[in-house]
Hints:
By secondary structure, the protein is mainly alpha-helical. Helix content is 80%, strand content 0%. The mean pLDDT is 96.
Amino acid sequence: xxSVLALLLLLHVKHLICDGFLQPKAMVESKGPYGLRLGxxxxxxxGAGTFLVLMSVGVSLVQGAxxxxxxxxxxxxxxYAKENIVRAAGxxxxxxxFWWAQMSDQFVHNATYIAIAAYLMSR
Length: 123
């Protein structure tokens, strides 16, 4: 149980760093159009961060790379979907629906970390 909690904590710290400290405004604005360099870079940072976390807890190189890639792909598409829903609806930070979308996006990221932990603990 302690190892699962430690893994989840590390993944959430990684999320704080990649979604917060390492995400400038230009990166936030590049998540809507599919395939833009900064949107892909953002997801890549998440994948790299997940890889580093997994290496730090002793996951094998190949398994860590596969899980990190999956995290990056899921992260990219969750952000892309949220941005397009928000933009299509015209929601701004003044609208409660914007915050519902934002929190739904964060829920998907958190659920991904729980799925990663469950997958690794089942191995």
